[in-house]
Structure formats: structure tokens, C-alpha cells
Amino acid sequence: MSILVNKDTKVIVQGFTGKEGSFHAEQCLAYGTQIVGGVTPNKGGQTHLDKPVFNTVADAVKTTGATVSMIFVPPAFVGDAVMEAAEAGIELAVIITEGAPVKDMQMAKAHATKHGMKTLGPNCPGVITAEECKIGIMPGMIFKKGNVGLISKSGTLTYEGANQVCKEGFGISTAVGIGGDPIIGLSYLQLLPMFEADPETECIVMIGEIGGDLEIQAAAYIKEHITKPVVAFIAGQTAPKGKTMGHAGAIVSGSAGTAAEKMAALEAAGATVVVSPAEIGQAVTKAMAKK
Amino acid sequence: MNIHEYQAKQIFAKYGVPTPKGIMVESVPAAVKAAEELGGPIWVVKAQIHAGGRGLGGGVKLAKSIEEVKELSEEILGMTLVTHQTDANGKLVQKLYIEDGADIKAEYYLSVVLDRKLEMPSIVASTEGGMNIEDVAENTPEKIIKVPVDPAIGFQGFHGRELAFGLGITDKTEQKNIINFAKKLFKVYTENDAEMIEINPLIRTGEGTFLALDGKMGFDNSALGRHPDIEAMRDLSEEDADEVEAAKYGLSYVALDGEIGCMVNGAGLAMGTMDTINHMGGTPANFLDVGGSANAETVAKGFEIILKNPNVKAIFVNIFGGIVRCDRIANGIIEATKITDVNVPVIVRLDGTNAPEASEILNKANISNLIVGTDLADGAAKAVAAAKGN
Prior knowledge:
- The complex is a heterodimer.
- By secondary structure, chain A is of the alpha/beta class.
- Chain A folds into two domains: 10-120, Rossmann fold, CATH 3.40.50.720; 138-290, Rossmann fold, CATH 3.40.50.261.
- Helix content of chain A is 36%, strand content 23%.
- Chain B is an alpha+beta fold.
- Chain B is built from 13 helices and 18 strands.
- In chain B, the strands form five sheets. In chain B, strands 7, 8, 9, 10, 11 and 12 form a six-stranded antiparallel beta sheet that branches. In chain B, strands 1-6-2-3 form a four-stranded antiparallel beta sheet, with helices on one face. Chain B has a four-stranded parallel beta sheet with strand order 14-16-17-18, sandwiched between helices.
- In chain B, helix 2 packs antiparallel against helix 3 (66-76), helix 10 (296-308) packs across helix 11 and helix 11 runs parallel beside helix 12 (355-365).
- At the A-B interface, helix 4, helix 5 and helix 8 of A face strand 7, strand 8, helix 4, strand 10 and helix 9 of B.
């Protein structure tokens, strides 16, 4: 077991023949991911990396039966690509592209929700179920199979966290990079219950950062519903106050989004909160020993 | 990206959002000429800098004669304005906005921002105009009203009514005016990919009309590509020169006041590295994310920018390679030591993609003040010790 994706997941790539799309699709294939084809308009009928290329997501889904799309299209086309995937019946869109306009993501996510499609990202490293399926750009070799689930806003902290967990002798069930943009798809609130329900996951590592209040919402959920141990780190305790012109954004969400505030909420919810990412591995060892 | 008040008002005007008449000037004679053109009898002389709290800092003043406009312009132009939103060094005033005085009957606060929880823009308003809105939110949250607007349906009549009733506006003409104002402002927000618009104060005149007395706008940097007209409004003199220089090379840099220069890949790990240094008793001198496409040239540039800061006593390079390849970073470090005089200890921790190749490259190069960190904790500890001279 695992969450979201496994060795049987069929994946297509939007932006398949581009530089980034090609490079990472190849890496995913090498990892063992079932990439069954890709989409690049006007290249339908061609073959790329020994897989079929389609003009539209609808064609790709019809022919391959793919349920997940990994999106690498340029930032200005991300909204369009996500909405196309949603209408074509894709169940999960993993959006890797960095720099998509916020307005586009807002519309695209609303449209995805309407069509029952989950989204992950944008601007995220993707999702990996260790030794089964990698959909994204993370270095696959550091993720050894095991019983720790990982959710992170930051790409490199995902690697840092997973690496420490594995060095302590444990491994990863599934690691999910949710991205740190203002509008993101799957987040702590949706992923925590999945890990709680996953029999393979025994401990959850949650990595957040300053800004917004997703971690505060997560803390409230952990307190009520999560029985598995949670190890948390919030990046940005020493970050300078945002150089914004006004603070209307913080006012509207009712929270300043500081690290201290988030750490206190998680601590109160029963999570083990570490002050440095260097302590994630040891904290997981302690949490697993207590179980 | 942020713009000046006078630029925000130019955009407002394009959409029919009412503002007082005004002219941007860069010299005292031009200020006098602008005042004559506007006609008076009252003018406001306003410093144009990218920061709030200009009034309290002495950068916004009322003039009752052309002579007074001249005196105030002489006083404000060229002054260094320190407000609660600038740093202690303040900002040099290089531009003024000479504006018609307005007949103020009431002051309000009005903004449009993204509500991250609802994932849609929200109009935020208050009867407490002219006040520091953060204080209002803190002390009297009931005086702040929020009207979220789903962009899929756009600004509807009911949004406007919610706003008008929420602000206690009962006169029918005034209701119509505020609803129109907000509707146009919302259009400014969505059509320009704004990140935020803030008007504080929004005023009601004796005639029951509403005017944007102030105007702040920030934009979604990711969407600037489709708004060349807005990108052209960028004022680089308002931005930190090192940050601008770093951005040219795909580096994200923010100066801090500590002693340990940091070069990290990924914003999260960069913040986590700063936190670790702090936790171990050191102080970070900067935030620097080399990004996903780091190469020898960008790394060398990063060193150059970090070393410009005279407080830097050690540099901690902390890379967990995913897309970034460690061997490229290693080559960058060697490159940097050739071009720049790296006269402080450099602690290097490289993990992930091509890390073994990277160690080999660094070992061969045999750089004297280079110290290897085996992991994040070890690297940070060595950096803290090195900065303390140990």
C-alpha cells in the first residue's frame, strides 16, 4: 500500500517532447514509472521515448487508459493544460511547472474540482511511492521503501527529510511535494487522512513554511483525527518580515503566517516539532520507538 | 512587483476608478508648474516611494498656496523617508505627486487581495479609513468586512450591496457610487493580474462621490509577461540593487544582518539552513536560493554578491541536488575562487545528484580555505565555528 500512486498507475506527460518533459519522463521511466504516453499538440502520431504522442489529453486517455498526468508545459499554458486534463477524465494532475500565474491556477483548480480531478502543485517536485512510482523531478535514489509518509511544501526539504529518514534505517511509503505557491492543489488537509488510512504508513513527516495558514489547519486536523505520530518542521523561523507594501493578505486570512505561530499550533496538536531540518531523522527514530 | 501611487492612479483612471487630479514631478520648478496647472486652492504634495506610512513619516503634506507647494516640494524632494514599512535607512524621495486637495466627508479603507483560504479574490473594506489597517484588524476585527468574489461569476450586484451595507452607507446615490467604484476596482484587479490593490483612505466627498485618495498596487510576477505596459512601470531604483543583480542570474537573494553567508538550492532548504545556523548559535547574513538551473557561472555570481557584504565571516554552501547537479556547483565554487578573492572559510555540503563526482572535483582542486560538511548539521556547526574564528 501507499497513497495516490503505485506500480500500476498509468501516467501521461503533458509537455512530453519539450526539454524538461523529455528529461524527467526518461528519469521516471528509468525509475519504473508506467509512463504510457504523452501529449504535445501537432505531434500526435509520433513516438517519443518509445511511447506514443497524442495531440490531446482526451486522445491519450482514450487510448492508454492513463489516470494521472504529469504536467511540464510552460507557465503561461499551465492553466489550460490542467483544465484540459480535468475534462479528459484524468484523476490526478501533478503540476511541476514553476511560475504559473496565480489567477490561472485559481481558475484551473476550481475547474478541476468541478470535474473531480485532484491536483498537486504547481511548482512542486511531484509525488513518489518508493521503489514503485515516481511522478516528478526528485532524485529517486534517496527514497528507500519503508513506513514513513512525507508531506512537504519545499522540494529540497523533501529530499533532506527523506534522506535523513532513510539514513536512520527507516524508509518512505509515499512522499508528496505540495509546492508553496499561493494556490496549490492537494495539501496537508487532504493528504493527512490518506496517510492515516494507509496501513503501510506508521509515521508522518510534515514540512511546512512561513506564509498562509495551511499548517494551522493541519494542526487542528491532527489534533482531532491523526493517531499516527507526526514529526513537523516549519522553515523560515529566521526569515525577515515580508517586503510587502501592505499586509492585506495576512489580514484576510486572519493570520500572519509566522513560523512561531505554526510551530506552537502543531506542538499543541501533539506533533513533535523540530527547530532544524537536521533533526528530522532523529525525531522520526524517537517517534517510531515510542509506537 | 510593486508600483508607485501615481502609477496605480494612472491605471485606475484607465478603468474609470475616480481619483483626484494629480501630476508626477521630479523637480521643484515642475512641482510649481503642476500646482498652477491643477489650479488649487488646496494641493497635496506627496512623496512617491514604495512604502506605506508616508504621511506619518512626513512625506505627505497639505499646501494652501503655490508658495507653500514650492516650500514643501523643496523639503520633501531629496529627503530620506523612514516609515514603518521601510528599513532603518529609509528611502530617498526622487519623485513627487502634486495632487488636488479633496473635500473629505468620510474616510474608508478598501482593498482587493487573494484570500488564500477561499482561493479567490476578496474585497476587504472598513469604515476605519486612514488608520493602520493591521491595527484595526488586531483591535477591532468586527470593523473589517470581507466580500469574496468568485472570478468565475465576476462582480455581481449582491457583492456590491454586501459592501455598501457593510460600510453602513444608506444613501441610495452613495450606495450606487460605492458599488460602481468597487466593481471597476475589481476589474482593475483581475484584468491586470494584480496581487493586491489597497486604497487607504478611500474618501466620500461632500457630493456623495468616492475618490481613491491613495493607491497601492502589487502584481503577480509570474503574470508580468502578459502585461508589458505594467512591466514598463517597474522602478528599479526602489528595489535592492543586489537583489536585482542576483535575479538577473536566476538567483533569489535577500540580505540579512548576520555573519554567515548562505548559498542553498531551494527556498525551503535555504530557510531551513538559516534556521539551523541560528539554532546553533550563528547568524545568517543572507537568504540565497540558487534555483533549479544553477551552473558554474551563477554560483560564482552568488559568491560575488555574498562577499560584497562586509559582515560575512564564513560561507555555507548547502546543496541537496535533485535537478541541480552537485558537480556543477563544485565547478562553480572553483570558478568563484578564481575570479573573486574568497577570503573567508567556505563550508561545503553537497548531497544528492552527482555528489560523489562533486567531492572528487573539490578534492582535486585543493582549495585552502574549503571545509567539507558531511551533512546539514555538520556543515552548519562548522560554519558557525568558522564564523567565530575557530
